[in-house]
């Protein structure tokens, strides 16, 4: 499957007709959150492919030109807390970041994310039994604990993601939330059977090959 993974920042060259040239063979768009809904809608309208997404901690409502309020990108599939399969390619999701304020949507304490992971676990197990293999992508907003995460209170990753990778062995974990400005910062890490990828601000992934091929 050829994937376009997006996270955290609008990429001007993708938010333009140039996307047709750069991403012509993309079959599925994955959004890790913290992106405007109009951007996601533009991307999938231009590419004419499905969108699977999770929310990030900065996601909020948007207003249309008619004044209507909306809290989801039109035409996308929210994969938080479930497994969704497209042409045999299985994606599960967990939204949000670590809670760093007492208020705010799409923020979870470590215990709350453990609860989300345990909620998702039966679906992962069911898919593995029925399909005879692990899911392809665990799509998250936040990174796993100590893998691409930060030590400041808002960027610490989740321990529950490490457990999910050890037990359910998704082929990829694709996340955002950590903005990378240093070209030497590591954005791809192997954790047991899973390749962990920071998608910020976008990555092109080809999972048809032996290993995943990553470009941007
Ligand atoms: Zn974030």
The DSSP helix count reads 4
Unreliable residue runs: none
Structural class: alpha/beta
- CATH fold-type name: Purple Acid Phosphatase, chain A, domain 2
Overall pLDDT metric: 96
Number of extended strands: 16
The tally of domains stands at 1
Strand order of the largest sheet: 6-3-2-1-15-16
Element string (H = helix, E = strand) = EHEHEEEEEEEEHEHEEEEE
* Major sheet summary line: 6 strands, mixed
**CATH level-1 class:** Alpha Beta
- Give the second-level CATH assignment, the architecture: 4-Layer Sandwich
Strand content: 25-35%
Report the C-alpha radius of gyration, rounded.
Answer: 16 Å
What would you call the shape? globular
> Which hetero ligands occur in this complex?
zinc ion
Measured as a percent range, the helix fraction is 10-25%
**Spatial gap, N to C terminus:** 16 Å
Account of the 3D structure:
It is a single chain. With 216 residues, this protein is of the alpha/beta class. The chain has one domain: Metallo-dependent phosphatases (Purple Acid Phosphatase, chain A, domain 2). 22% of the residues lie in helices and 26% in strands. The strands form 4 sheets. A 6-stranded mixed sheet has the order 6-3-2-1-15-16, covered by helices on one side. Strands 7-8-11-12-14-13 form a 6-stranded mixed sheet. A hairpin with a 2-residue loop joins strand 7 (83-86) and strand 8 (89-94). Helix 3 runs parallel beside helix 4. The model has no long low-confidence stretch (mean pLDDT 96). Bound molecules: zinc ion (ZN).
